[in-house]
Amino acid sequence: MFKDKKVLVVGMARSGIAAAELLINAGAIVTLNDSKNQEEIEGIEGIIDKATCDFGGKPSHLEYDIMVLSPGVPTDLSFVIEAQEKMTVLGALEVGYRLSKGVFYGITGTNGKTTTTTLTYEIFKAAGTDAYAVGNIGNPLAAVANQTTENSRLITEVSSFQLEMIDTFKAHIAAILNLAPDHLNRHKTMANYVSAKCRIAENQTEEDYLILNYDDLPTRELKIDTLKSKVVYFSKTKLEYGFYVDNGMIYANLGDPVPIMPVEDINVPGPHNIENVLAAIAISYLAGISIEDISCGVRSFKGVAHRLEYVGTYHDMICYNDSKGTNPESSIVAVKSMAVPTVLIAGGMDKGSVFDEFVQTFDSHIKHLILLGETKQLIKETAVKYGYNTITLVENMEEAVALAFELGNSSEAILLSPACASWDMYPSFEVRGEHFKSCLKTL
């Protein structure tokens, strides 16, 4: 498939590096490209001697058979547009898909992807399957492709960036969890963003399933008439058909109602997590996982790092790391989950989001707002517009955490939930979250 093809891989983040290594092993003649200089790129030591390097700017030429883009590389760059007229242009996820074996299960949406992907993976593992959690979750599909067999089950978190560049990628069971404005700095319009998300279903057939959130109006109102797959909804209230909650019990009803488990057995807090659990149960049930294994997987699940993660109690203040809150909608969920007065640390890269609804949820939850990053002034101006003035701007995480301890009192909370991407100050939300935790422990 790729043997002896001249392939340019653009973007040396985790996905690009994994795709390059997979392509080298598949016999491709690979050139690596990144706007950074070689000494600024981590993790390429294993492939640097097996490929040609073209670092420090855009590709020096476009004389290749195939171009492969890391998800973080915008598709509207001039050299990408030029390449699309000369050669095949693929995403790193598509490369991993073409060189993998097994059955794929795809999960996308604005929020909840990582939690749902992780929980679904845990359920599949509880059932004894050869399961992998891959994709946008931080484990590139290309990194495990050579390990997969026909019996493998690939639980794949898929972002809008990745879906922009698919071609043949198909999930036997796909889920769209919710849709809210995000990444508009890249997608330009909400319609473009939704269109990218919906590509998760474009290659599905009559034998496949698309799972949609009935409680999320934009998702419920998606035009599904042209889809070939079977559409199944989930909801926190009773449905005539699908997966739902009724009188405290989760049911699967694909003809007759089948009880799965009580809602009270879910060990991750918040109504948003009931939706995530319903989606994971729907995927698992339709995939043939037993009710016993589904229940076991859900009961043992305690959540994921960086998503409303309880870090510890320091100086009698309860500390939560929600660095995965990379858009306002996600951070609204975190703010609403706070049961005590909270010092909120927010701000980060400007993705074109608006923060009106975010600051309107503060009410009595948030006693002080500490802001950092590119968006700090924008969020401050939005908060002041709605009458919220208890705000301090800081330059870095160390300063933010130190101030949070000064402002908070015993039995109150400190919450990092940025409502923004991390890329203005950190390479990833994981690094941002770990830095927050290290600052807590240092102080």
By CATH, the architecture of the largest domain is named 3-Layer(aba) Sandwich
Number of helices: 16
Strands across the major sheet, in which order?
7-8-6-9-10-11-12-13-14
Low-confidence stretches: none
The share of residues in helices is 25-40%
Q: For the terminal residues, how far apart are their CA atoms? A: 54 Å
- Judged by helices, strands and strand pairing, the structural class is alpha/beta
What is the mean pLDDT? 94
Strands, count: 20
| CATH domain topology of the largest domain | UDP-N-acetylmuramoyl-L-alanine:D-glutamate ligase
Largest sheet: 9 strands, mixed
Given the C-alpha coordinates, what overall shape results?
globular
Specify Rg, calculated over alpha carbons. 22 Å
| CATH evolutionary superfamily of the largest domain | Mur-like, catalytic domain
Tell me the name of the CATH class of the largest domain: Alpha Beta
Record keyword descriptors for this entry.
about 450 residues; alpha/beta; Rossmann fold; UDP-N-acetylmuramoyl-L-alanine:D-glutamate ligase; Protein-Tyrosine Phosphatase, Chain A; nine-stranded mixed sheet; six-stranded mixed sheet; 16 helices; 20 strands
